[in-house]
């Protein structure tokens, strides 16, 4: 183990009126971050399979609650002082990079640089087409979007002339006082190469420990290939088979730096469990893993 394993609480698919209090409790008990998922809408009929379940089915339905992750980060950031937030992951493909740059910069400033931008492409053709964006060539489009957002967030008067986006000199003020970290999601070879090439970290969907170990090895090889092996890099993981102190120790050993968890689900509660039960789960998890001292042994 080369560093302290961080702990992030995911607030996926939970009632949105609980989020502010969950953030306050997560900070009080010692969590490092909140992971903010993204879903634009539920289409009654999906043209593509969901890529992160064995049978392609979605794990939610039309009544599952979602909140815009950037708005949630602003609301939760207002009631905390140390807790960090990152999108996990925001689907870039269906959105506009200049509008996103304005939003991301605002959240970074309002939270005093406690925001990380987790990005992905998006899997559903409907999210692209119904938002007025072509589904074809989405990967190349997203690569250019990342270039645009990073350029604008760096501050100053900038211009961009690319294949998909083109604008003359402009400036968004204030720029964040520190660079916003970009965390790249995805399991495909193209996604891993994108993370190794331009990311400050990589974030997984649900994976086994063995799959994570293999992927982290691959990412480290790619980072070396791109001459970035010595740069700081986060490995944010959602692991489905490594539990207990021994399981968490194993995650740290294979290179995971940030363990994304949902404590109330581990306690057998549903996503819609009452707030007080979720707060109890957060405290119990923190006592067991964050404050137990296992990382010092």
TrEMBL record:
Entry keyword set: Flavoprotein, FMN, Monooxygenase, Oxidoreductase
Any GO BP annotation: alkanesulfonate catabolic process
Pfam families, A to Z: Bac_luciferase
EC number: 1.14.99.46
Gene3D superfamilies reported in the protein's UniProt record: Luciferase-like domain
Species this chain originates from: Mycobacterium simulans
Superkingdom classification of source: Bacteria
Domain Luciferase-like: 14-235
GO molecular function: alkanesulfonate monooxygenase activity; uracil oxygenase activity
Transmembrane stretches, start-end: none
Annotated InterPro entries: Lucif-like_OxRdtase_Rv2161c, Luciferase-like_dom, Luciferase-like_sf, SsuD_RutA_monooxygenase
Protein name: Pyrimidine monooxygenase RutA
Keyword Transferase in annotation: no
């Amino acid at each position: 183990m080369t560093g302290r394993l961080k702990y992030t609480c995911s607030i996926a698919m939970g009632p949105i009126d609980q989020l502010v209090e969950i953030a306050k409790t997560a900070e009080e008990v010692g969590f490092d971050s909140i992971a903010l998922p993204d879903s634009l809408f539920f289409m009654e009929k999906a043209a593509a399979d969901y890529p992160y379940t064995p049978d392609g089915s979605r794990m939610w339905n039309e009544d599952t609650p979602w909140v815009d992750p950037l708005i949630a980060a602003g609301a939760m950031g207002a009631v905390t002082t140390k807790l960090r937030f990152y999108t996990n992951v925001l689907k870039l493909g269906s959105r506009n990079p200049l509008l996103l740059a304005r939003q991301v910069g605002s959240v970074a400033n309002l939270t005093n640089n406690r925001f990380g931008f987790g990005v992905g492409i998006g899997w559903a053709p409907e999210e692209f087409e119904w938002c007025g964006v072509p589904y074809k060539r989405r990967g190349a489009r997203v690569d250019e979007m990342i270039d645009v957002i990073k350029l604008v967030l760096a501050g100053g008067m900038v211009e961009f002339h690319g294949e998909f986006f083109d604008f003359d000199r402009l400036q968004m003020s204030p720029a964040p006082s520190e660079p916003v970290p970009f965390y790249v999601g995805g399991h495909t070879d193209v996604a891993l190469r994108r993370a190794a090439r331009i990311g400050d970290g990589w974030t997984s969907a649900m994976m086994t420990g063995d799959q994570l170990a293999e992927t982290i090895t691959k990412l480290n090889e790619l980072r070396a290939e791109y001459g970035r092996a010595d740069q700081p890099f986060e490995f944010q993981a959602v692991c489905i088979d490594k539990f207990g102190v021994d399981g968490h120790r194993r995650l740290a050993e294979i290179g995971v730096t940030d363990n994304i968890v949902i404590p109330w689900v581990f306690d057998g509660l549903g996503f819609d469990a009452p707030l007080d039960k979720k707060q109890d789960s957060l405290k119990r998890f923190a006592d067991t893993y964050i404050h137990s001292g296992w990382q010092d042994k």
